[in-house]
Amino acid sequence: MTATAERPAEIGQARKRKEDARLVTGRTMWTDNLTLPGMLHMAILRSPVAHARITSIDVSGARQRPGVIAAFSGQDFKDVQGSIPCAWPVTEDTVVPNHPSIAVDQVNHVGEAVAAVVARSKAEAQDALEAIDVDYEPLAPILDMEAALADDAPRVHPELSSNKSYTWAFESGAAGSGRPIEDVLREAEVTVTRRFRQQRIIPAFMEPRSTVVLPEGDGVTVWSSTQIPHVLRTLMSLSLGIPEQKIRVIAPDVGGGFGGKLQVTPEEFLTTLVARRVGKPVKYTESRSESMMSCHHGRDQIQDITITATQDGRFTGLDVHILSDMGAYARLITPGIPILGAFMFNGIYKFDAYRFVCDGVFTTKTPTDAVRGAGRPEATFAIERIVDELAAELGMDPMQLRRKNWISHDEFPFTTVTGITYDSGNYEAATDRALELIQWDELKKEQAERRARHDTVQLGLGISTFSELCGWAPSRLLGALRYAGGGWEQATVRVLPTGKVEVVTGTSPHGQGNETTWSQIVADRVGVPFEDVEVLHGDTQTSPRGWDTYGSRSAAVGAVAVSNAALRVVEKAKRVAAHLLEASEDDIEFADGKFSVRGSPGAEKTIQELAFEAFAAHDMPEGVEPNLDAEATYDPVALSFPHGTHLCAVDVDTETGRTTIRKYVCVDDVGTVINPLIVDGQVHGGVAHGIAQALYEEAVFDDDGNLTTGTLVDYLVPSALDLPSFTTDRTVSPATTNPLGVKGVGETGAIAATPAVVNAVVDALRPFGVTDVRMPCTPERVWRAVQGGSE
Amino acid sequence: MTQVDVKVDGVAYRDDVEPRMLLVHYLRERLGKVGTVVGCDTGNCGACTVAVDGRSVKSCSLLAVQADGREVTTIEGLSDGDGALHPVQQAFHDEHALQCGFCTPGMIMSACDLLRENPNPTEADVRQGIEGNLCRCTGYQNIVRAVQSAAKAMVRS
Lengths: 791, 157
Fold this sequence. Notes:
The complex is a heterodimer of chains A (791) and B (157). Chain A is α+β, with helices and mostly antiparallel strands and 791 residues long. Chain A is 28% helix and 24% strand.
């Protein structure tokens, strides 16, 4: 980091984004914008029933339609389509059913692909779908997790012995990270037990998924609206048998993901199979309604949670039993999503004992998988909600109860009851700042007054003092959790002959602004102007290695790799400079892009000059290869633990059930901030997502297993009118486990906001005897809670 | 097939189109105006918003034949073409009002229409005015700020 008088440090500056130029002018390369010579269009016929045997399917009618090149059913690919891969069987005996990308003889959820038509135009392909005949022999839909686990329950996959995929368990006594849970439960002075439901939600990224496949000889080039081009390439090779070196995957501009594009999808496989079969480039772009029912969903847990404490409010034990609705299949990391929460239910608090048991259950619904936060919003919701319930039981102020039990700032690094070590944080500082910003004491006073006068609109105050774990790495830990992939990240920094810089990153941004942020880091490290840095990503040919973007890992892992590669460039340049300046390397000083000899004014070379010298290579030092390039692979030593305090004040109309967020304050601690503009933007978006889960969004299935919220009419992605203005601030406790001090930020808001809002709603209604409101807290649910006390 | 004469981003086009063809498909598939995007199939997301005779319209909700004789402006024709951004585009950049950017063309086109009707909107006016455009990334806060900042810039100019 070379801040000088001439140029202030880039890290920490609110740089406006490089990405914006093309995005604000409509010069964007979304996958659906791509047109290749001779390209055909594919449409997919999807199952209208949740669970059925396909007794016959006839696509010949479609082949007669105008413009139709070919029509296929699952029979056409049954021997070559492999199975959609699951990379995270969480136990030795996790059941992973076969998952065809196009159904062969059975459908297991509404929206599963059963036939595909390829035509000259998209309209012709779609029109021809109606000429396909499918006979379904209905099977019982399986929609309720508890019923699905009964011994005599009908099975989603008849070839399996039950609807359970796995049971994953952790117990602090056995793990040696705390006392035996049974002892602590038995000794408890105060016990509070609750059942919370994490409703099913839909990622609802704004860009529908799209894939274009160009078959070339034995191989393919695949453009896809994906978060994970590298993972897709490898798994496509393993699953479809296409040699990996013959596959190029390109993620061009990608319009949001939120975990929804962290997937290897049936649509990507099917487009590939079809393009190879017809020998022409094929495009498939989903409609929004297709996206809602076939893109994986998220959350969907039943949480039975017990907290124990002493009479004076010291937490002792936490016992968590989860049912996780996996839907019909185990997709890429479906089984692992609740396990990401297993190390987070304890939140920021100290416990003597902890148990976590999760059953993964198959149902005839859309598969679930990662959605922003993935496992950690579920855990944070449960702990932050039950702490409020315990406070009510003890008659204590919920903030005082938290203060009494959280890890204090002088206790870091702190190993929690889950055995995970939090490296740094300051919960007191973040909380004090948040309380000040929202003017908590005044709000408390107002609440008391309004309660006293039985105001029909009650004020509720909600707290979420959260931490999360992110920066999905290190590889060794992922291996220990039976995750098939690694967690390292790779970067290359190349100083071109003219002194401009190319950065190659293995992360694959889709809104996170990595082009800007990585430029800032490299500008600082190498001493070149921000404008001179170009960041390349999202193409397995230009960026051959990486683990892509999810789990708030881009900065915490990818940026460190970039920084390390840039530092190696400087080291190399230093050797070249010493050689050319005829000085000892030890005497070379580097600042602001200039290498100078200590004590010899005027003896200096700029990084740009050295780049050309290294390119021409007329006079390189012994053993130094021409060019100023360097590569770095970074595998962190630990996860990252951002935290913060979110406070929410809601007005709840007890006569209509309507909830209005009056104030929302969040003070987050994400360690070192590279670009505050981008960090604030990530927090805003995350909080919006978390509020949406608390108040608006739910994927609802009817008794037959039909998704009844299959469009943006019924599935309430909030508009500008539905959300408040947020007040954001920060404390900075740098991560001690990576050299940049950064922690993840992409998911914090979504993790923190949901319990803050629901705690506020329940707080408003506590005088009515209400102890819970199921999410989303719709006016109807709130009104019913007011009428009948607790649900 | 029906013939349409339509001016898009300053260029006159004459085409035969199927009567069922939506304006957004005409823009994207026939004219290559892929800056205008499709985000849903129910008219809710607003990603496809363009201006028709100066008024914002969701181009998925209009047939191409309905644009006959009219003038359409898309995100691609919004700035003068001299390299400078339109004040609303500039404000979106300055205020970090976009992340993935997929909703941005429609959001900017709606914001332009909002500012045409109300050159000095309050925060509530802006939220009301862009209610028909969904954004999943930003939580709208910086979009609201950008529209208000563009309003100030446009009053000054």
